[in-house]
């Protein structure tokens, strides 16, 4: 697995009491190191997302506002979303991390000398991006990194599946992609060219990993197989963890490992489709223990 991260993500200064603070990145890196320190040792730094890449998803006025607040030393994008002078750079790197993952995996699997190469990547980034809409940064999020990468890949003619294991799905990537989950109702199946490509699986309060695994096995996995993506982008949020105070779900840490093990094999690996790969992007949850 390819790991993409950078110390510059720590420059996104939200204050030491904010739920989405630099300590979250440190905790994630420590967790990876505890499992396999060689993953971090062999990791790569991302490139910055360029302005035209951000504008595949976000309006010019939204981007300009983030730049302006950073240039004057920081401030608030909304009540929940503070930023400092280094936040614009960190947000560009976060979006660029997913783009870099796609580029690195493509190079690894299409090289004439390749005998397989990496087919999965984990982007350990901040700020998160899942609440950012085309017009507004909100909910701790500046730019929607997964949406930017999906737009870039789609513009190149690639089929992209976005799988979000988080809760709730309201406000995130759906504002950019009508085929992507919105408020989470079963009746929401996408609009226009994306009609029928939205698959929502509402779960009741208190649902455990067993319920989520059943949803993946019986609904999500078959839907992704029918779609036959070239790329799978996993929006790796953890708000469903039982320690999260807002969602009411009861997943354990090991449940998330099961989710990923079910999803990763869905990305094609056989030549000439070996460019297809899985990129998982860190985000959530709120508590820091």
Automatic annotation (TrEMBL):
Molecular function, one GO term: histone deacetylase activity
Domain Histone deacetylase: 18-166, 178-269
Pfam families membership: Hist_deacetyl (PF00850)
One of the GO BP terms on file: epigenetic regulation of gene expression
InterPro entries recorded: HDACs, His_deacetylse_dom, His_deacetylse_dom_sf, Ureohydrolase_dom_sf
SUPFAM superfamilies: Arginase/deacetylase (SSF52768)
The protein, known as: Probable deacetylase AF_0130
């Amino acid at each position: 697995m390819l790991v993409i991260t950078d110390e510059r993500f720590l420059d996104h200064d939200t204050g030491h009491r904010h739920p989405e603070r630099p300590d979250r990145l440190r905790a994630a890196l420590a967790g990876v190191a505890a499992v396999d320190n060689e993953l971090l040792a062999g990791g790569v730094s991302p490139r910055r997302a360029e302005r035209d890449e951000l504008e595949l998803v976000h309006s010019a006025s939204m981007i300009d506002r983030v730049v302006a607040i950073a240039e004057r030393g920081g401030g608030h994008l909304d009540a929940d979303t503070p930023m400092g002078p280094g936040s614009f750079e960190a947000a560009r790197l976060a979006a660029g991390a997913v783009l870099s993952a796609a580029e690195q995996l493509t190079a690894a699997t299409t090289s004439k000398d390749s005998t397989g190469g990496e087919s999965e990547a984990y982007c350990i980034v901040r700020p998160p991006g899942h609440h950012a809409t085309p017009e507004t940064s909100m909910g701790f999020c500046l730019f929607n990194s997964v949406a930017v990468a999906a737009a870039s890949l789609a513009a190149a003619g690639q089929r992209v599946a976005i799988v979000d294991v988080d809760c709730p799905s309201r406000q995130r990537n759906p504002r950019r992609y009508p085929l992507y989950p919105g408020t989470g109702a079963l009746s929401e199946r996408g609009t226009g060219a994306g009609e029928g490509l939205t698959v929502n699986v509402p779960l009741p309060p208190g649902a455990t990993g067993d319920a989520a695994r059943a949803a993946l096995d019986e609904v999500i996995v078959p839907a992704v197989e029918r779609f036959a993506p070239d790329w799978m982008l996993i929006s790796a949020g953890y708000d469903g963890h039982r320690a999260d105070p807002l969602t009411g779900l009861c997943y354990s840490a090991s449940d998330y490992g099961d989710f990923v093990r079910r999803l990763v094999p869905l990305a094609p690996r056989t030549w000439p489709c070996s460019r297809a790969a899985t990129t998982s992007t860190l985000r959530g949850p709120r508590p820091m223990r």
